[in-house]
Task: structure prediction
Amino acid sequence: MLEFDTDPFMPRPAAKSPRRPPQPKPAPEEIDPVWLVKALATTVGVAAVCAYLVLCLLFYQGQWQLVLHPARTAAAPASIGGAPYQLLHFGPDESAIPQLTGWWIPAAPGAPYAKTTVLFLPAGDGSLANSIPTLSALHTLGLNIFAFDYRGYGQSANTHPNQQKMTQDVGSAWQYLTTSRAIPADRVIPYGVGAGASLAASLAAAHPAIPALILDSPYTDLLDIARRDPRSNFVPARLLFHEDFPLAAPLGTLRTPKLLLSTTKLPAAYRTAADPKTIAQFTAPTDALYTQAIARFLQSIAPSTQLAPSSAPIAK
Result:
């Protein structure tokens, strides 16, 4: 019998594993066309919503252009209907630079209402230069006149106007008159035209010492004006509109004597205005009719106010 000497430490040949056949590569999963359509529709929908929100934001920020139409002027007039005046710069901002330009038109010596100052708040169209005929007519009554351009108008700061800024500008004008010129509040009569009528009514409501208020052809139904613009058809204008210059609300509770002038259909805010009030509606307005209406109103309120003529000079 043959015996084989084996070394227990000699490595044994490894057993060969059986060769496996190559596995086929998995086929790529097919994209569900329904999912693809849903993803595309979602993307388009989100983009459309974002675009619509941007459109609403642009309308919200730029709606002032639908109701306000400012004009810039390069130079001040030589006179106001022949009357001399003083060009003023007031209302400084954080940089101490005046933002507003105004005109101080003093009453003639010995004028009937030399102690009374009209704070003239112009409309939202054009610039103060468009109001020179009205300012001249008021001056002939013997009143001091202080008129100014809101920011964005005339020679005031070059920015776009809106209701909030114009309200701030009226506050600056009031502060200038009562502080810088030291004119008592009971000797200042706000006179508002167009959008200025709303601002004048709000000013009188905030300062009960104001003795009288004159409003002339106020802006009404501004939302309706804005909705006539074709661009308003693409957004919820009623929900976004805020340049409304409210008038009915302040007039409804204001007990200050009021002269309400109108050359068109009588505004609803006039009919609901609180007493005392005087309404003058002109179907064929002339400067003489305006002057007569304002003169009668000043005479009617003089006994109960500080509007009586005085030889004392106005504080400056």
